[in-house]
């Protein structure tokens, strides 16, 4: 287990770098997590992060890529709700990386 320092607090991370306590998440925490991934969050990233947090509130789980794409398409339209758009924003494993930045648990089917 490791830690993350954000907003003057030391936060616990699991072995995959996800927040241990969902209540610890703030936009500043997301920004620090993104920096660790070599990313600077843009408005497009925040749109997906907020969408993921809404998904989690509604379903109590972090979506895998297919449900995320479907949910994004329904909420944001087909231009943003597709694998290509999500892969451009969250390189490699969009559901996993976006969930981490959103302060959510790792999706169960992600390696």
TrEMBL record:
GO terms for cellular component: cytoplasm. Pfam families: DsrC. The keyword Transferase applies. It comes from the Bacteria. Keywords: Cytoplasm, Transferase. Its EC number is 2.8.1.-. InterPro entries: DsrC-like_C, DsrC-like_dom_sf, DsrC-like_N, DsrC/TusE. The active site is at 110 (cysteine persulfide intermediate). The keyword Hydrolase does not apply. Gene3D superfamilies: 3.30.1420.10, DsrC-like protein, C-terminal domain (1.10.10.370). GO terms for molecular function: sulfur carrier activity; transferase activity. GO terms for biological process: tRNA wobble position uridine thiolation. It is found in: Cytoplasm. Part of a sulfur-relay system. Belongs to the dsrC/tusE family. PANTHER family: SULFURTRANSFERASE TUSE (PTHR37010:SF1). This is Sulfurtransferase.
